[in-house]
Design goal:
- The chain is mainly β.
- The protein has helices at 2-24, 150-158, 167-175, 179-183, and strands at 29-31, 34-36, 40-49, 53-55, 73-78, 84-89, 91-92, 102-109, 125-136, 138-146, 186-188, 200-206, 215-218, 224-231, 233-245, 249-262, 264-266, 291-299, 319-320, 326-328, 353-356, 358-362, 406-415, 422-431, 439-442, 446-456, 464-467, 473-475, 495-497.
- It folds into two domains: 29-231, Immunoglobulin-like, CATH 2.60.40.2580; 235-273 and 282-474, Immunoglobulin-like (Sandwich), CATH 2.60.40.
- It contains four helices and 29 strands.
- The strands form seven sheets. Strands 3, 5, 6, 7, 8, 9, 10, 12, 13 and 14 form a ten-stranded mixed beta sheet that branches. Strands 16, 18, 19, 23, 24 and 27 form a six-stranded antiparallel beta sheet that branches.
- A hairpin with a 6-residue loop joins strand 23 and strand 24 (422-431).
- Helix 2 crosses helix 3 (167-175).
- The chain starts with a helix and ends in a 42-residue tail after the last strand.
Length: 539
């Protein structure tokens, strides 16, 4: 009996010891089957610029690489509920060995696979930031934010501390309290210095798990993270091709301007933000947002004075003809020129026009939101479907997308072609998007390579056109070459601009002819009354 009692006491003591041992062991948090220890770890991370993706960027032209550098970099952590945990404003260093809270930048060669959604890259090299950072173990949404400026950096450093910060800093502190607030921060376009519109945003993933969600688990020492960051802005380069012009047609380019660019842009979500429960419909006008009427301009003439009709001659540099059809910009500081091929004016360093993302959805073929001059299913293929679409109150103005961004080319055309004479100022307009028919999504981080292909008599281009001819007036080919052979007739093409009036009669006279065959008799001796008698020999 005593022996059994002693045995029970031994088992009881052993049980207590086992309990004590178990109780002394650290608790581990398990989330989705993965243990998360207490404490913190130092992560190694890379932040890569997404290379610009090919799409179809005083106010003046801007270099093609104007928004291609990291000025400052912040990393922000949010918990599983999307609430701010901590933020880090990192220190930039010049060597390749960053310590905790530091980063350095180097250039990396890119390939097509680096472009999102299988797109084609438009930049061969972009920067890469390498950093080290000590953070607590846990599950987080971790975001990289670049080029937001001093006020944002101060807000990240001061979050959770006493208020009393400057107004702009306090605004950022409020916004970054949640991840949705961070993403919806409203950026404002800097008209005076385009290079300052280089804000970038991206989220971190674990290396090797890049296709997983934004929520990641930090539960091991020395974990490696990676983030692709995208610029909020995009750029557009413009080239011109007159190879399909008729002979005797000349286009004199004056300038190209980007119009109706968004004044504001969301840092980390589509811009403009689509209203809740928004359902696109046929002939949808798009999402309303504030616009800057005139963005940057690239001029194709020297000096500050716009050229006049007397300047438009054979020596004018930006002159496009069938025989010399290609034209476009070079890099900053150099004039535009006639390249050997169009690709030469769609490079990374070509002067470009920049703008914030403007997602205006899609139109519908065969309606005013069809970008083409002659829309689908139109019976008359020779005239514009909406001839008054250049008027702001017309249903087809801006292709029925009043909040979209567009390109406007200002030019002057002259046609001495005997089939269609004419001259006058002309404007060509194109709504930006990912195709030339119905897409109006001018997405961020894209390089839109736009080529205006002139056709026919200069006013038959693929873009929407608005042109004027002097009124009233008479247009004839000048010069007009005729045959001096005997017994020949000729037809002189004449175009009369009535200025809105009605032409009731037309009288044409040959006032004089300063040429006649040698030996022609004077009028008194039975010669021709309009012929001139020359007494000298032609050598």
């Amino acid at each position: 009996m005593m022996k059994n009692k002693a045995m029970r006491c031994v088992w009881l003591v052993c049980g207590l010891l086992m309990l004590a041992v178990t109780s002394c062991k650290d608790d581990l948090l398990y989330t989705d089957g993965e243990p998360i220890p207490e404490g913190e770890t130092t992560i190694i991370a890379q932040v890569d610029f997404r290379p610009l993706v090919e799409g179809l960027a005083g106010k003046s032209r801007t270099a093609g690489d104007a928004i291609k550098s990291i000025q400052d970099l912040c990393v922000l952590l949010y918990d599983t509920e999307g609430n701010f945990v901590e933020g880090h404003s990192l220190e930039s260093i010049s060597n390749a060995n960053p310590t905790d809270g530091q980063f350095y930048v180097n250039e990396v060669t890119r390939k097509d696979g680096d472009a999102p959604d299988g797109g084609t890259i438009a930049e061969t090299k972009t920067p890469q930031a390498n950093l080290k950072l000590t953070i607590p173990y846990g599950r987080y949404y971790i975001y990289a934010v670049a080029n937001m400026g001093e006020d944002f950096k101060k807000a990240v450093q001061a979050h959770g501390k006493e208020n009393g910060a400057a107004e702009e800093v306090a605004k950022y502190k409020t916004a970054i309290a949640t991840k949705e607030g961070l993403k919806s921060i409203s950026l404002t376009w800097d008209v005076a210095d385009v290079a300052k519109n280089s804000q970038m945003f991206g989220h971190f993933t674990i290396v090797g798990q890049e296709n997983n969600s934004e929520l990641i688990t930090i539960n091991k020492k020395g974990m490696k993270l990676h983030s692709w960051i995208r610029r909020a802005a995009s750029k557009v380069t413009i080239a011109y091709d007159g190879s399909k012009l008729e002979e005797g047609v000349f286009i004199y380019l004056k300038s190209v301007t980007i119009k109706d660019i968004p004044q504001n842009c969301c840092l980390g979500q589509d811009n403009p933000a689509v209203p809740e429960n928004y359902q696109p419909k046929d002939r949808d006008e798009g999402v309303k947002l504030d616009l800057i009427k005139n963005g940057e301009t690239i001029k194709y003439y020297e000096g500050d004075t716009e050229p006049t009709i007397s300047d438009f001659k054979e020596t004018y540099e930006a002159r496009i003809t069938k025989g010399k059809p290609l034209f476009g910009s070079k890099e900053q500081g150099e004039n535009a020129y006639h390249p050997k091929k169009l690709a030469d004016v769609h490079t990374e360093i070509t002067n470009a026009l920049y703008f914030y993302e403007n997602m205006q959805g899609k139109g519908k073929e065969g309606t005013p939101s069809d970008k083409r001059q002659v829309v689908a299913n139109t019976l008359n293929k020779t005239e514009p479907t909406y001839p008054n679409g250049g008027q702001e109150n017309n249903e087809a103005w801006k292709d029925a997308k009043p909040y979209g961004t567009y390109i406007e080319v200002d030019a002057f055309y002259v046609s001495i072609n005997d089939k269609k004479v004419g001259r006058g100022p002309i404007k060509y307009r194109f709504m930006l998007g990912k195709d030339v028919i119905t897409d109006y999504n001018a997405e961020r981080n894209h390089h839109y390579k736009l080529t205006l292909k002139f056709k026919g008599y200069a006013n038959d281009a693929d873009w929407h056109i608005e042109y004027e001819e002097p009124e009233p007036g008479i247009e004839v080919p000048n010069p007009y070459y005729i045959s001096y052979l005997y017994n020949r007739t000729m037809n002189l093409p004449v175009k009369i601009n009535t200025g809105g009036g009605t032409l009731t009669s037309l009288k044409a006279e040959i006032l004089t002819n300063n040429w006649a065959p040698y030996g022609t008799l004077p009028l008194a001796k039975g010669g021709l009354d309009y012929a001139t008698y020359y007494t000298y020999s032609i050598i």
